[in-house]
């Protein structure tokens, strides 16, 4: 009897004292971790006015002609990189030779890491939503101004950090270029596990760079505690296609820090609080199909008419 009590106390002890943050999918009666709506109790910035992710209402996004295509440097080079299970996602460390500039960014930014947010199988899993649609997965590539060495240092600068966000969608075709990453995730099931990926090309898991001229820009925050604000977000409109089986494999291979399957590791959308979301192009010319082509032609005609009247 006493022994049982003692054992249960010992088992429960770490849980009772745990005030670690967690996602909604990890929260339960036994695990009194802080779920997203309570993050601000330990991390006040999470209750701020400029938080991420957000729902992007395309109709309200304001056209900004300065949002020219981002210039990617070094993104096609094959890399030998490490991948780690952080207990809440998988992170690939990227070398500073990967850089971005242009697109109204104030300077050149260098890559630090990339990581993913996903759902259950091919269910909703992205952090940002577009007109209420939640994609099955979202990739974040975190960059800092090139004069900084660490994220902490860059965070001290109100425009020190720029994150690129890419959506994934389910297609009937398998995208075999993604398999190398899926296999790497399979080698890091538990918190703290690391592995190496050789000859990895970041462009293998992105839509082709020519299709990336349509994007949204707004000022937000990190989507995990401490939720630091002053992050320049670039959310690309064009999703990357992978198969349902590939998504299932991704979401079934890894585990959260305290034992549950790592699924639905996304933060719910936050209030816009009067912020403006900017868009790079007037119409969705990247999306093919007769309807879009018609819309594009209509846009152009209206523009021409506007010029001559
Ligand atoms: C990456 O690793 C492979 C195999 O271990 C090696 O052949 C190659 O030279 C390495 N490439 C770089 C850029 O370090
Ligand atoms: C943050 O910025 C302030 C003022 O510019 C500076 O004094 C401080 O050293 C910076 N902190 C870090 C960690 O870079
Ligand atoms: C995904 O899972 C299926 C079934 O378990 C397996 O046959 C396939 O090889 C896996 N693909 C990858 C890339 O891990
Ligand atoms: C992964 O992490 C678990 C739990 O910490 C550990 O037992 C295991 O040895 C690790 N595996 C590798 C390959 O590092
Ligand atoms: C990954 O590569 C590094 C450097 O090449 C090496 O020190 C480390 O042992 C490798 N890790 C694994 C898990 O293979
Ligand atoms: Zn993220």
Automatic annotation (TrEMBL):
Q: The organism sits in which domain of life?
A: Eukaryota
Which segments does the entry list as coiled coil? none
What chemistry does it catalyse, as a reaction equation?
hydrogencarbonate + H(+) = CO2 + H2O
Task: Write down the InterPro entries for this protein, in alphabetical order.
Answer: CA4/CA15 (IPR041874), CA_dom (IPR001148), CA_dom_sf (IPR036398), Carbonic_anhydrase_a-class (IPR023561), Carbonic_anhydrase_a-class_CS (IPR018338)
GO MF term set: carbonate dehydratase activity; zinc ion binding
Cofactors (names):
Zn(2+)
Q: Which GO terms describe its cellular component?
A: plasma membrane
**Which SMART domains does its entry note?**
Carb_anhydrase
UniProt signal peptide = 1-18
Q: Which UniProt keywords apply?
A: Glycoprotein, Lyase, Metal-binding, Signal, Zinc
Q: What is its EC number?
A: 4.2.1.1
Assigned protein family: Belongs to the alpha-carbonic anhydrase family.
Q: What does this protein do?
A: Reversible hydration of carbon dioxide.
Q: What is this protein called?
A: Carbonic anhydrase
- The protein's organism comes out as Hemibagrus wyckioides
